Amino acid sequence: MTAAALLETSGLVARYGDFQALYGVDIAISGGQTVAVIGANGAGKSTLLHSIAGLHPGSGDAVRFDGRVIGHLSAAEIVALGIALVPEGRRLFTSLSVEENLLIGGYGSRRAGRDGHWTLDAVFDLFPVLAERRRLPADRLSGGQQQMTAFGRALMSNPRLLLCDEVSLGLSPAVVRDIYAALPAIRESGATVLLVEQDLQRALEVADRVYCLMEGRVTLEGKPAQLDIADIRRAYFGM
Hints:
alpha/beta; Rossmann fold; six-stranded mixed beta sheet; four-stranded antiparallel beta sheet; 11 helices; 10 strands; 36% helix
């Protein structure tokens, strides 16, 4: 395992039947970092997050968290270790209230006996609009408010590693700005962040390190300040 890496994938392969989605993907994330995975639709970004989160089987010993092989663990076991996913599409319990969705997010960490910064009050401080709507069912929220609820639900597990899938997809620029404005507080709470993002500019602004995927392979990696925009575009589009 790479020195000081909180999470590492080594030769990660993922398949859907006969279709291969990831081809030997290697990434390493140090504690306290924000790392962005960029790439076009179908590049394998979400599959990478799902493999880490235990939602896509077959990772075996290709995924390590804090030095421990976790590819064989279930999604519930991985949450208990301190990895939480903000999924693409939010996946809220729409008939439950905002507060109930948030409390469900904290269930796994309570069972594991892991406490931390993120409580209902802390989430409402981060996203005040949710406090105003805490009794409303999730299907009565706007898309942006649902995304905030999905973030809050993941934070309620007090994760050491927060996986964020397609942060800005389908949201207005104002809402995207609010979501990204919350990232510093999330990092200050002790969480490391791995985010999937199609918005190149956003990813480069917030990330300590960037990985670009194309057709299931890492085509570029490095610190944003050291990457040439032309190289990024070639790695992103294959041009």
